Each structure stands twice: as structure tokens, then as C-alpha cells.
């Protein structure tokens, strides 16, 4: 499979080229356009694997859809264009084993060999991280496409790194994060507008997004006229 | 133990494409060795090794060179123990945190599972009783026509406990008693129909909606028309207080509660027809029986019939009970005589003065006719 990410970073879409027999698993509703030699199969689990019901339910808790769409090329040289619901960026991550922990709704697509499950990051993180209760956990080997609100930037963490709540897209399983106050004192942290932040520790890749969906919603919401 | 086990893990090193690769980890006599899928081999000696515990799970073990240029990591459950055995007690304290983290996560999950289960059960049980309570509370919103349908369905489904008596003297006498009480029923819209059955049972009942069945055994046992009217006031009170409707709801539970809340009485009618085949529809709780006694006393008083006649009938039964024990079905589900007599007298004491009038029924003639028609 070849890929090309177009219109980055504000309105990115991923153009995927598949040869006969190649497949890709996508978020429900991600397909924008495709050539006619692609077939679509919808399941609640990994393509060709059983036991997807529980995983599907867990994914729902993480903000993803119960179902997954598997696109398979029946002929050579097929094109599939996919994109996220929110305006923003798309990035490609090559998973070479281990897992990638993705914030709910940032998983867009992945190779069919990658298992998409949900994982619990603890109650404190669920409340204060600005993300959902559950996270998507992608495991295996292959390509993953992530989407964001705004632009995505990539950080290779080796030691410690701080990200504001609501700006995490994904991180490798070799990283651990804790919720800490931004400043020396809790009151100062809140007065400074930063409040609580996510402090990452360890070694691994971290993807962050330039914009924060909840903050954007708070800004836009009051300006909308009631229906 | 060295080399006995292999563990799935990974390596971070700048010589690897992308900086990271999965690897097979092995503990050797001198250190930790990692072989990637492409065959690259990395090794850290124990004495040059720094250990961290972290990762997304909080249980991943990282072994690094002091300059952090090489990191070998592993999340295998067996790895911490094997490392402790092979590398000695140097890392014991840090590795213990992995075990604690696993235990803590297990405990947290069990706790959340227990709390979640308890909350779900509480919601289910609470929701069940809340729905039942709502349905019971909304009984006043159900039209009286529902009672009439239920009573008719139950009446049609059951067979009378003996041949029906059609003698005008007998039937008209009972109808006259009912007619005296009917204007004072606090629930309007009920239709009181009278059926007299030739049976030695000292019994009478009133189905929801107002169908009254009186056994000749009751008419023969009572000492006056006022006593029979007292019993009828009690039975009519069950219909007036809609005890049958409540009883069906309590018996059939949640299904009927939901049907009532959505305004569907069709199911209720068919269920009542099933209940009507047995005596279930006319068997009430002691509270309902007491309420019927109290309501009956008020009706009798309003109809200018001495309510103490009802107490008098209980006195009669109390005296005659030894010889009637098997036959007095009417009392089988009812409170004890003394308790009922006390209830009636207590209620009478609360009533304002009233000039009572007797029933305009020729009691002697009624008894004589019962003899003539061979009433049991």
C-alpha cells in the first residue's frame, strides 16, 4: 500500500493506493471517495478474526464507532481517499510491534493486521487529561493513520515532556504520562490559564495536536444562535 | 537460569531504522541481550545498567545504558522475577513496584467491578420498585371502564360455584340492599350487577367493576337484612377502592406496570381473565380487607344503615365458627373476628350522629322463599 497525505495541515485527507488483495481498516464514515475495484466489509472486529463484539463495545466507550470498515482491492491500482470528521491534520505512523495509545476519535485507519482495542488509563487521567474515559489501543505491525484537530506535530521523547490537556493525539506504549499542575502552585497554575498538564516520561514517540476541541467548542458555542 | 527463557520486548537505538524495533530479550550471565527481528544484537551489562519502570501500563521495565543511548524494554509478566533472580538484589526495590502496580490495577478493577455491579443492581431494583410505585400511584388516572372490562373478563372466565338463583324474591331482596348502598359509593361509574348462587358457602364477593356474587349460605346464616347489607358494603368497597386492579398489578408486576403507564389495558384484561379462573382476583391483603371494612362502615352510615350490623355479623360468625369452620370461606383471607369487630366499632365511634333506618325487606319471607327453592 502506498499513501499520500494531501492538503495538510488544515484539511488533510489521505490518498491510499492499494494493489489487488491489499486491505485497509478504516473508521466508519472515513471514506470520501474510491475507485470501483474496492469492496467494503463491515465488522465489529479485526478483519478475519473472531470475538469482535466486546472489542466493538469497548471502542464505543473510547469515542470510536462499534463497527469497522475493511476496504479490499479486488483489482490492481485502486485508490481510496479517507478523511476525518473534524478539520485538521493526518499523520502516518509505522507500528513495528508494541502498541500505540490513541486518544478517542483520533484513529482514522490502519492495516488489517493491527488490532484496534480500547484501554483504560486510570480514573484521574480520565477526568483531568481532557481526553475520554477510554483510549484506543492499536497493537501489531503495520501502518496507522491518525487524525487531529488542527495540525499534528511529532515529538521523540527521551526523558520528560509536558503537553497541555486536550492536545494529546497518540503516544507509544513505552511512554507514561501523569497529570501534574503546570506551575509551582495549584492556584498559580489555574490563574496562569494552564491549570493541569500531562507530563510524559520515558522513551518513545508522541503526537500532539495544535488545537484543543473542547476549548474551541467553548469559544464557538456561545456565539451560535439558538435554533 | 541464564538463557533459559526468552521474552518479547523491544529496543531503542539510533542504529535502528525509526529508532525502535521489537526484539527477543534474553538474560545472560553478564547482562541483558536483545535480538531484533532483523538480527541486530544489543547487550547491556548488569553493572552498566540503569533500570526504570513505566510505559503506558506503568509496568514496562526499561534497562538503559548510563548514557541512555541504548534502551531495552520488556513488559512480559515473567521478566521482573527472572531479572531479579539473574541480576541479583540490586534491582529488587524497583522491580517490586511492577508487582505492586499489577496488584493495584487488579484491585482497582475488582473494586470498580464490585461498585459497578452494586450500582447496576441498585438501579435495576430501584427502577423496578419506582415503576411499580408510579403505576400504583397513577391508578387514579386509569378510567373506571378498565375495572369494568377486567371484572367482565374475570366473570366470563370463571364458573359460578353453584346454580344461579333467579327467584325474584331472593334476587330482588339482594338488589334492594345494593341499591340502598350504591348512591353512596365514592367511586362513580361502577355498575353493580347482582348474581345469587345456590351454595352453602357463607360467602360473597365483588369483582372489579361491580359484579357482585352472593351465596345463599350467607343469606341463610345472617340474622337480618342489615347484616347482609353490611357484608355487601364490605365487598362493594373492594370494587370502590379498586383492590382488584391493584392486586392484578402487584401479582403481575413490571409488565402490567409498564402497560398501565403507557395506557394499554388490553394486556391487563387478559391477565385478569386468567386470574379470574381462580379466586386470586378476590383474595386481598389484610390491609385491603381492613380498608374495605372502614369504607363499608362509612357507606352504611351514609345510607342510614347501622354499621354495627356488620360487627354483629362478625359476632355471629365468631360464636358459630366451630361448626362453620370448613364452610366460612369468606373469612379465610380476612383478619380475625375480634380485630375486625374492633375496627368497625372504632370507625363507628368516629362517625357523627345519624338516624338509622332498617332495610325495607321482609326478612321472614326471604328466609321462607330460600327454604322453598331448596337453597343450601
Topology, element by element:
The complex is a heterodimer of chains A (227) and B (376).
Chain A: E1 2-6, E2 13-18, E3 23-27, E4 31-34, E5 38-43, H1 52-61, E6 68-73, E7 78-82, E8 90-102, E9 107-111, E10 115-120, H2 123-128, E11 134-147, E12 152-164, E13 168-172, E14 175-181, H3 186-191, E15 196-209, H4 213-220
Antiparallel strand pairs in A: 1-2, 2-7, 3-6, 3-9, 4-7, 5-6, 8-11, 8-13, 9-11, 10-11, 12-15, 13-15, 14-15
Chain B: E1 6-12, E2 20-27, E3 31-36, E4 41-45, E5 49-54, E6 60-65, E7 71-74, H1 79-87, H2 92-137, H3 144-157, E8 164-165, H4 168-181, E9 193-197, E10 204-206, E11 211-215, H5 216-221, H6 225-240, H7 243-252, H8 254-261, H9 266-276, H10 286-302, H11 308-324, H12 337-350, H13 363-372
Helix pairs in contact in B: 2-8, 3-9, 4-6, 6-10, 6-11, 10-12, 11-12
Helical content of chain B, roughly? 40-55%
What is the strand content of chain B?
A: 15-25%
User: What is the overall pLDDT average of chain B?
Assistant: 83
Distance between the termini of chain A: 46 Å
DSSP strand tally of chain B? 11
Principal-axis shape of chain A equals globular
The CATH architecture of chain A can be given as 4-Layer Sandwich
> What name does the CATH topology of chain A carry?
Double-stranded beta-helix
Counting DSSP H or I runs of 4 or more residues, the number of helices of chain B is 13
**Number of contiguous helices of chain A:** 4
User: What amount of the residues of chain A lies in strands?
Assistant: over 45%
End-to-end distance of chain B? 98 Å
